[in-house]
Write a structure and sequence with these properties.
The complex is a heterodimer of chains A (306) and B (431). By secondary structure, chain A is mainly α. Chain A folds into 2 domains: 51 residues, no CATH class; 224 residues, MetI-like (MetI-like fold, Orthogonal Bundle), CATH 1.10.3720.10. Chain A is built from 13 helices and no strands. Chain B folds into 2 domains: 186 residues, 3-Layer(aba) Sandwich (D-Maltodextrin-Binding Protein, domain 2), CATH 3.40.190; 193 residues, D-Maltodextrin-Binding Protein, domain 2, CATH 3.40.190. In chain B, strand 1, helix 2 and strand 2 form a beta-alpha-beta unit. In chain B, the strands form 3 sheets. A 5-stranded mixed β-sheet of chain B has the order 2-1-3-11-6. Classes of the chains: A mainly alpha (306), B alpha/beta (431).
Chain lengths: 306, 431
């Protein structure tokens, strides 16, 4: 009734009033989402920023005090932070280099719809269904130098045993291996969906024009798949920045700090050392570091929409 | 107009969000653990336990305590990983959520410095049931922080030497009394090809525990009375060199072996000897969990230039904000007192080292290692460093040791870095 009266109001064009009313209703309809988002995200983030400028410590009864940027200069300029940043980037880059091509190859194979495809697709998706902690524990046992099945297999087949979790380089490799084992199925599914959505006509036309299979894939399929590839890349980038559970379970950040990522460092400082404010400072920097990813993400989504 | 409307909507959303956040906080506190009903007069106590053999034994005795006294006992268990954070939050709230708390000795300093726990020395001094003199003098202060006794001794778990009697016999080895003997035995076993020479914990941060023992045995210390680190000394260097040498007489994967893994390695793979806490005894001698249960024996940890043993363990105490302190003490006397000490062990607890149990012929026939918990007065007992910043201290030491063990840094450079970093860590310790 009210709605009808407003659309008929003589003060302005009816279409504009209708648009205004629609916006008003939309604001109220989306309000619950905003409330939840702000309660679960914005408020804790604001509290985190506030804490990062103070000297709060979970283990101390005495109230903290405002100390400006001291937590930032102490934590963010530390050798541990730089090392953790390097490890984060290293694991992320190696992971993407390994995972994306592998997922693409698997997706292309599955797209061919050869015999047994349904079975292979189900098997390949299994790792995605498991929780990272369970996966981490399973791999930790398998990677055990003395008792693990992987070294047993290597030894039985004439290769030497590898100190998977005892050497910095092999520990990084182990982390990438476990992370890839879980991430590749998801990427594969994403790329398979992208491939399924492609029109087959340009590929057929290229084939008619004499392009071989590789050329069709390289010059026709791949460019058409670019938006999906970019989305996959962005998702892995975000996952890489927040990678925690796998490393926590498989290597614990070791040997030493060889596989300690920024998320793990933040956890250690905030929850193991109980240094709440110092942990908050690392968390704030970590959040700031993900901001560019957000803008790239928006751009990627834009590319995909076009 | 539209802007004002948008601002009004935004303000409302923000206000609702704040209300929702505030409500969330209250709910979390409510579900953490309900406070004991009523005030100091109610006959109900809430006991915070951390899953462990000792927690199982306490739970087993709780029903009998209720039957005898009429005091209800509500048990709340939280895994080790979150236990101390949860306790700290409960103490800070000051609501008297718990009347009895089990905690790791590494948190004693933290709790003591903040006044989280009730001093117990007066109650202990006047209790014949608890009988503090039933503990050897070397461990009577295991729950002490500065001038107060803040925790009863729930378990004392010294490092022991564990060795394979069949391998020792085959190679004609004798039980080592010194660290040099220990390493010589390890090398002999390793060279024989029968088994890996030995195993210690080498992965971060638990490697720090074994390294502390070596530093103390080699005559060094971790820091001085003014809290200046003393880890870049000839003694610490000798201890670190020795620690690295032991790795060479270990399995290929020893470098990534942590606390529990050390024992798992010893009981499941051919390994000649191990240094490990006594609390693992039930696991090691149980044929269902140990492949070598009937050929494992224990002895005192070897000596260096100093005769010292590192001791881990649990404490149990009464939070300062408890509203049922008398009932809580009654409960502690019952489960930790001398009359129930034997039953406490029979329920599966790691021994708290009472003389009455460690000299009990019946118990000794079953578990000979109990005798080793009777630490002679001339042996120095070293706990974990009693520091409020201990978690950071341990992690710093552990990370650098891991780098030394994996060859990423030299012993000299590593110890210099450790000295520098620990100086920063200890600067935050309350004087």
């Amino acid at each position: 009734m009210t709605f009808a009266r407003r659309t008929a109001a003589p003060n302005g064009p009816p279409g504009r009033t209708l648009e205004h009313a629609r916006r008003h209703v939309a604001t109220w309809l989306t309000a619950p989402t905003w409330v939840i988002l702000m309660a679960l995200f914005a408020v804790p983030l604001a509290v985190g920023v506030y804490l990062s400028f103070r000297s709060e410590n979970l283990s101390s009864l005495g109230g903290g005090e405002f100390i400006g940027f001291e937590n930032y200069t102490r934590e963010v300029l530390s050798r541990d932070f730089v090392a953790a940043l390097r490890t984060t980037v290293l694991v992320m880059v190696i992971g993407m280099v390994v995972q994306l091509p592998l997922a693409l190859v698997l997706a292309v194979f599955l797209r061919w719809n050869l015999r047994g495809t349904r079975f292979y697709r189900s098997v390949l998706l299994l790792p995605m269904l498991l929780t990272p902690v369970a996966v981490g524990l399973m791999w930790r046992f398998m990677l055990n130098t003395d008792l693990g099945i992987i070294n047993w297999l290597l030894t039985e087949t004439g290769f030497g045993a590898v100190r998977w979790l005892g050497d910095p380089a092999s520990a990084i490799a182990a982390v990438v291996l476990v992370d890839s084992w879980q991430a590749v199925p998801f990427l594969m599914l994403l790329l398979l969906a992208g491939l399924a959505g492609l029109s087959g006509e340009p590929e057929a036309a290229a084939a008619v024009d004499g392009a071989n299979g590789f050329q069709v894939f390289r010059y026709v399929t791949l460019p058409m798949l670019k938006p999906v590839l970019l989305v996959a890349l962005m998702l892995r980038l975000i996952d890489g920045i927040k990678l925690f559970d796998t490393i926590f379970i498989v290597t614990g950040g070791g040997p030493g700090t060889a596989t300690q990522t920024l998320s793990l460092l933040d956890y250690r400082v905030g929850f193991t050392f109980l240094a709440t404010s110092r942990g908050a400072a690392i968390g704030v920097v970590l959040a700031l570091m993900t901001l560019p990813v957000y803008f790239i993400w928006r751009r990627v989504i834009g590319v995909e929409a076009r | 107009m539209r802007t004002r409307s948008f601002r009004r909507s935004l303000a409302l959303v923000a206000a609702l969000a704040l209300v929702l956040t505030a409500c969330g906080g209250d709910e979390t506190a409510d579900t953490t653990a309900g406070p004991a009903e009523g005030g100091g007069d109610t006959e109900k106590i809430t006991v915070f336990l951390i899953p462990s053999p000792n927690a199982t034994a306490i739970t087993a005795l709780a029903d009998d305590f209720t039957a005898e006294t009429g005091i209800e006992v509500e048990i709340s268990e939280t895994p080790y990983g979150e236990a101390h954070q949860k306790q700290i939050l409960a103490f800070q709230s000051g609501n008297g959520q718990y009347d009895v708390v089990q905690f790791d000795n590494t948190f004693l300093a933290n709790y003591g410095a903040n006044g989280f726990l009730e001093p117990l020395q007066d109650r202990i001094g006047s209790s014949d049931i608890y009988d503090i003199n039933d503990f050897s003098p070397a461990i009577q202060d295991y729950g002490d922080y500065k001038d107060d006794t803040l925790g009863l001794i729930l378990s004392t778990e010294p490092f022991l030497l564990w060795y394979r009697t069949d391998i020792y016999e085959e190679l004609g080895l004798s039980v080592p009394e010194t660290w040099d003997d220990y390493l010589a035995n390890a090398r002999a076993i390793q060279e024989s090809g029968m088994a890996d020479g030995q195993i210690l914990g080498y992965s971060t941060p638990v490697n720090a525990w074994w390294w502390y023992q070596l530093v103390w045995s080699f005559g060094g210390d971790l820091y001085d009375d003014d809290l200046n680190p003393t880890v870049n000394t000839p003694e610490a260097k000798a201890a670190t060199e020795f620690y690295v040498e032991t790795l060479e007489a270990s399995s290929d994967g020893a470098i990534s072996i942590g606390g529990d893994d050390t024992t798992n390695q010893f009981i499941s793979a051919e390994t000649g000897q191990m240094i490990q806490y006594s609390g693992y005894h039930p696991l090691v001698v149980d044929p269902e969990t140990s492949s070598f249960a009937d050929v494992i024996a224990t002895a005192r940890v070897p000596k260096g230039s100093a005769d010292v043993v590192h001791m881990a363990g649990w404490n149990i105490g009464i939070p300062a904000d408890s509203t049922n302190k008398d009932a809580a003490w009654q409960f502690l006397e019952y489960v930790m007192g001398k009359p129930n000490a034997k039953r406490f062990l029979e329920e599966g607890a790691a021994a708290p080292g009472r003389i009455s149990t460690t000299t009990d012929s019946g118990l000794l026939a079953e578990t000979p290692y109990l005798e080793l918990l009777n630490i002679p007065a001339e042996v120095r007992v070293e706990r974990y460093p009693q520091l409020t910043v201990y978690p950071e201290f341990e992690k710093t030491v552990g990370d650098i040791l891991a780098n030394i063990l994996s060859g990423q840094t030299s012993i000299d450079d590593g110890l210099a870095e450790m000295q520098e970093k620990l100086t920063d860590v200890l600067a935050a310790e309350p004087r």
